[in-house]
Amino acid sequence: MSLHDQDDIALREAQEVRLRKVWEPPKGLFLRWTDTNNNQVGVWYVLTAFGFMLFAGVLALIIRMQLAVPDNDLVEAGTFNQLFTLHGSVMMFLFAVPMFEAVSIILLPQLLGARDLPFPRLSAFGYWSFLIGGVFVSGSIFFDAAPDGGWFMYPPLTTRTDLSGLGADIWMLGLSFIEVSSVAAAVELIVGVLKCRPPGMRLNLMPLYAWYILVVAVMILFAFPPLIAGDVLFEMERLLDWPFFDASRGGDPLLWQHLFWIFGHPEVYIVFLPSIALFAMLVPTFARRHLLGYPWIVLAAVGTAFLSFGLWVHHMFATGLPKISLAFFSAASEAVAIPTAVQIFVFIVTLWAGRVVWSTPLLYAAGSLAIFVIGGLTGVMVAVAPFDWQAHDTYFVVAHLHYVLIGGTLMPLFAGLYYYWPLVTGKKLSDRLGRTAFWLIFVGANMCFFPMHLSGLEGMPRRVFTYPEELGLGGLNLASTIGSFVIAAGVAVIVLDLYRSPWRQKAPRNPWAAGTLEWLAHPDDENWGIRSIPLIESRYPIWDQEDFVRKVDEGRYFLPDAEEGRRETIVTSVLDARPVSVIRLGGPSWLPMLTAVALGGVFILTTYHFYWAALASGMLTLALVLTWLWTGTAEIPEKPRKPIGHGLELPLYISGDAAPGWWAMFITMMADATAFSGLVFGYYFFWTRHEDFPPMAMADGPGVWWPMVALAVGLASWLATVGAREVHACGKIALARVLVLVGIAASLAGIYAGLAGPWLSGMDPQMHSYPAIVWTLAIWTTAHCGVAAIMLAYVLARSLAGKMTPAHDADIRNVTVYMHFLALTVAVTYLTIGLFPELA
Amino acid sequence: MSERRKWHERLKVTLWTLIVPPAVWAGHFLFAYLWAAISCAKDGAFAKFPVLFALGTVLALAVIALSGWIAWKQQRTVGDPPPHDEGTEVDRLRFLAKSTLLLAGLSFVSVLFTALPVVFIGDCR
After folding, report:
1. Where is the Cytochrome oxidase subunit I profile domain (chain A) (predicted)?
2. CB A176 within 8 A of CB A147
3. What number of other Cβ atoms are within 10 A of residue A769's Cβ?
4. What is the rounded CA–CA span in Å between residue A537 and residue A795?
5. Could you give the percent of chain A with pLDDT greater than 70?
6. Contacts of residue A203 in chain B, CB cutoff 8 Å?
7. Which residue of A35, A248, A764, B38 shows the fewest CB atoms closer than 10 Å?
């Protein structure tokens, strides 16, 4: 096919018919929910997250009504605890993080000129997990069973089952389930940004939104898993009485605080950076010029991402840690102001240098920067340890965090809402209502949260359900309450605006005259994402590349057709976006939804201690995952290559580190390894906290012999797999199968040898934190050996079924990535539990 | 005949080299934290090994400075002045080099920030 073929209008129409058919969403009352197209799933995701925000907002209003006047008795103390815990948890876990993922799932394919992200079924799975987990956690308040320990759930009040009810389990298990969907989305977004950019979109031409999302998704990989590790320990203590956080049996509540805040602080930036990324898209549009200081934004995003991990202890300044440790974290907290300020200055300078169009989205952006800067300044104050000791646990901190989150997350999202609504629905929102809402929210936010600085400094503690009149804080609290209702009125205006949207006229295409790829979207939305995948030569192709929109629309770029009736997109190289292959994307399927339901069953049934049912649900999950993989991945195509236009021919099958599947495995394993390092941190943390760790009485521990045997067989299964991969690639299929069998046998032996150490030396995990953490490490590692055995058996089955050949070996290459990480896990675990007691 | 390029010009700049300076900061930060935590918990005084801390800090600063210097050299590869927004190999190289240089600056300052408490506080209290 040459460029001129596309001059033929009949050909173009035939292509469009084929594309439309391929990308057609399933119809019918039930079937439509099986769709996996990110356009659809993203919209459900956004609406659901928005719904959770409104729910959490209502909780906040009840909190503020209770605190409006001194000695109020609107709600009881117990209910109040549930209200503020759920308000914080829902806003963080069910609104801020999922909203960024939802928005990205809609925007990224458009921004990257891709038909869709590489794993649409994974996005759908993430969405259903989020919905189920979210309803489970939020619904608990209607049964007076909501978590009530604060969104940070500090032990020991929350781990002791005599002091806390079911709410703590609902929080831990429900939100762990949602973290699964966050990690799933992170995998999708990272691989999407790295591998699914359009040809020519080198790293220096990538839209800044994509840079931010890449950075944030990587942050999720290192921030969420420590919390998952913490959740594991937490539930082991609650359900099995293993004393990780119980000081009377060698545990330490501070371990939870460390694991929680290693997640909790980067979390603030995880919700802040994507919102700022929206600015990076809309500021150039309304400044009518390219963004100044592109590398400075990359500095800001990457720098903030790193530094934000050095801040977690600044939430623990009042816990009695050595001052020198506090000082390190204080220093890092001050340093993070540098990149944060850089990005704000970049926006200001761009506006300064441009010809500004004062639109509603830009109004929200400007207002949110004003609010965010105030929050940032009080952040510098509380980062100074002695000031923090004064302000700790007062409303000053409440004021600080709400300024940061309203200025840094909520209002930027509203800016994005007004900016991108035409992209999603083809219709603009009302400028009049938008500006009214803005001023209500802006005035309301200042009226609500500014007085909290003062009430905090005057001694109003956080998380109290009422306060005596003599404190003299009635006036300030009343002002805050009125302010909160003004914010709510603003949000109500936005909801009204959204509600009226379906009856409005269609807006013209690209209504803001923006220059970036996502605005190729047509008001009469087609589900195919983009008509043809363009060649990119500039950061603002719609502005800079001649006849760009017309050429895309006429299918004059790549992959303008779907001859084989399959959903497809182009995979490119990481640095320079050179076309590498065409991949087939997963179409509509029940599997993502069913897998989410089954996995949800594991978490929810465990909450109610129905362990056998939970186990059955786990087996069902495994069966569904295997079905999903068997039917939907590493499919051998009907022909080796296909033309994508302009004389280019690309392979339809790739394996190894050029393939999205390999990257997905690698990234998932990074998250897995991070969770594991959280558990290992626990072991060494106990060692620094205790004079004698391991305690003399238990020093026999798991011994040296069994851990060393487990290490040997673990490494043997790794070597067998690596060997199998190599000989398989050389065409020695039979030998490869034998090596895979050896790998399976060694992995299974690894389970026995790993558990034999603590088992045969009679370690009782309920007695002390030492046996508990040794057991945990052993169980974690042997569970991974079990997964390795399943994966290797899967590879063997694929080979026997003829679905894996030396030329099509993605399965074994991906499993080898898993085995590399398994080898690392095995080595760290058994050297720690086997040899460290000999040294310590 | 083209002149043989120097080693720092031949280095391949990638996303991995971009994160070297902040990763060194992270390594130094973790080292500083663990060094203080372990020496305070196990010996009751970190001031026993300030030499170790000083060496670690100097090493971190040296690596950051080196990566910054390489980035400085590479972003001066011949071509148009900034903003390096052409779809060419050299502009991609110079963009990554410029970003690395900026990150090296930030990381250098941040390592100094982390080192300051040891100078001014000097014990475990």
Report:
1. 17-537
2. no
3. 31
4. 42
5. 100
6. 15, 92, 95-96
7. A248
Could you tell me how many residues make up chain A?
840
Both tokens of A110, joined, read 């458009």
Of A202, A205, A295, the CB nearest to B99: A295
Supply the range of the domain harboring residue B116: 17-79+86-120
pLDDT of residue A1: 44
Of A525, A557, A583, the last residue of a domain is A525
Residue pair A69/A478 in contact by the 8 Å Cβ criterion = yes
The model's confidence at residue A111, banded by pLDDT at 50, 70 and 90, is very high
Alpha-carbon span A840 to A542, nearest angstrom = 64
Secondary structure element (H or E) that encloses residue A275, with its range: helix A253-287
Q: What is the pLDDT of residues A235-285, one digit of tens each?
A: 999 999 999 999 999 999 999 999 999 999 999 999 999 988 999 999 999
Stated pTM of the model = 0.94
What tokens appear for A460 in the block?
Answer: 């109003």
A203 touching B (Cβ < 8 Å): yes
How many separate domains does chain B show? Answer: 1
List phi, psi (to 5°) of A35: -65, 150
For residue A436, give its domain range: 355-525
- Which among B41, B110, B120 has the least Cβ separation from residue A332? B110
Q: Which of A229, A46, A34 is nearest to A130 (CA)?
A: A46
Asked if the model's pLDDT at residue B80 lies above 70, the reply is no
What is the DSSP secondary structure assignment for residue A319, as one 8-state letter?
A: G
Give domain status of residue A290, yes or no. Answer: no
More confidently predicted of A476 and A161: A476
Tokens 């099509």: give the residue: A808
CATH number at A714 reads: 1.20.120.80
DSSP secondary structure code for residue A581 in this structure:
E
